[in-house]
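Hi everyone,

Forwarding the result from last night's run.
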Amino acid sequence: MIAVRYCSKSGNTKKVAKLLGEKLGVEALSVEEPLTGQIDKLYLGGAVHGKMYPELKKFAQELDSSQIGEVFMFGTSGGVFSIKKELMSALKESGVRIGKDAMFLHGFAPKIKSDLNDNQLAEVDKFIEATK
C-alpha cells in the first residue's frame, strides 16, 4: 500500500502532495490523519519556513517502523533551503527506512498558491519514476 502525508501552511506543499497522490492513485492527507494498515511506501512532505513544522516532526518521530516499509521525503520552499536534514533526523528517531530518492521543489512564494511550473511538474514525474 502507498500513502501520502504532508504538512502545509501556505498550501504549496499540499498542492504538491495532492499531485503526487493523484499520480500514485491514492488520496494525499494531512499528517493529522493517522496511517492505517501496512504501508509499503510513505511519501512524507512539508515546507520550510525557518524550521520544519512541529506537527511534521512529531508525525515523523512517531512512525512505527514495523508498519512502514520505506519513506520518501518531499518538500517545498521559496528559496534554496529544504527540510531534508530536519526531516531525516526525525525519521531516523522512529527507525523507519528512508528511501534514497527525495524531492525538494524550490521557487514557491510563501502564502502565494501559484501553479507548479513545467520544471516542477517534470521533477514530480521524475520523483515518482525513481521511487517505483
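The helical segments are 12-24, 54-61, 84-94, 118-130.

Cheers,
N.
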